[in-house]
Amino acid sequence: MVKVFYEPPPYGPRTSLNRPPYGNDGGTTPRWVTRLNKMPHGRVVAGFSLGFLCVAYIPLLWIKLPYTLSPEYLAAQRAYMRYHNMNPIFGISSKQARSADA
User: Fold this and answer.
1) Residue 19 half-sphere exposure toward CB, CA atoms < 13 A
2) Residue range 65-78, pLDDT digits in tens
3) Structural contact between residues 97 and 81, judged by C-beta atoms closer than 8 angstroms
4) Residue 44: CB partners within 8 Å, gap ≥ 6?
């Protein structure tokens, strides 16, 4: 019978927080990545979320809003919904909503 000894590979996962998971990369990691890695996670997530929101808002600065958001279209939509008695309990056709629109 042959005995087999398992030896995990060097620098495997969870060996050290200072090194990459699978071997040394020779210090080619940029400094800003290392600083981000050592920052608190909440601050990093909040920063990236804020950055994404700013990038997602950029197209709204140049693109015209759709015609379905014009005041005339919304008024026609409300009139259509009232005519067909849509959502009569709490919505646009309720007594409370009709009394508010004098």
Assistant:
1) 13
2) 889 989 999 999 98
3) no
4) 36
